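We close this part of the discussion by returning to an individual protein. The sequence in question and its structure tokens are set out directly beneath this paragraph:
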Amino acid sequence: MTLRPDSPIDLQLHTINSDGTWTPEQLIDHLINEGFGAAAITDHDRPDAVASLQALAREKDFLLLPAVEMSADWRGEPVDVLCYGFEVGGGALQGVAATLLERQRDNLRRVVAAIAEKGYPLPDEAVRAILDQPCVQQPHSLVTLVKQHGYQTPDLSAGKLLVGAGLEIITTALADVVEAVHRDGGVALIAHPGRGDGYALFDEALLDQLRAEIPIDGFEAYYPLHSDAQTEMYKAYAAKHGLLTSSGSDSHVPERPPIPYRAEWSRPLLERLGVVVG
């Protein structure tokens, strides 16, 4: 596959398979209608959904790269990881995702039992429905369920009630995610490294420390919340150290649609994935 240097691409997108409102068909149709040359749907912690996404894209003759965004942590802070080009159906990354899902379910079950003991019971059917959701949705859905049952006061919000009972957003050690992606033949890039907002905020010094510990392959340089100075710093750092860079909108909803980044801005990554830019 060959893309022009100016072909529009977007390498971080989300659907109802994780926490977006796009259906996969709706999102792919949008990309086709808007003239995108390629894209990556990176649903959180859902490598199991990649095969069906690839099949749908092939039916529509659209270049969709195999990808997922994994929920990780490093030094006690959340670090999302964009994984590309891994073997679809590979065992290592799927094993990490399956363990993450079961840990999130276990945490939710314990929290539901704990608040029930405090006089805040929840219907079994509603709890089972949450447990069937993608793991990234489960903590937020539980907060919503508690609110729906009126279990909050001006002094005790639903969130505080649940966090006090032990609710967590479960993540996987960054090193374990990177190892799994590499075992499945893919590459691992840090998502939105300059975003902050609860995530680890990477400057050059912290990137040096990260690379000394974990063999990441690169990071997302182009991102809507990055300043121009951040983008230029990440580009220069990647060029200096031979790292890959990606470009992603992080679109979850049609109201914030994909961004047409130029393919040449992610040339080394695309060519690593078998897409020639030229």
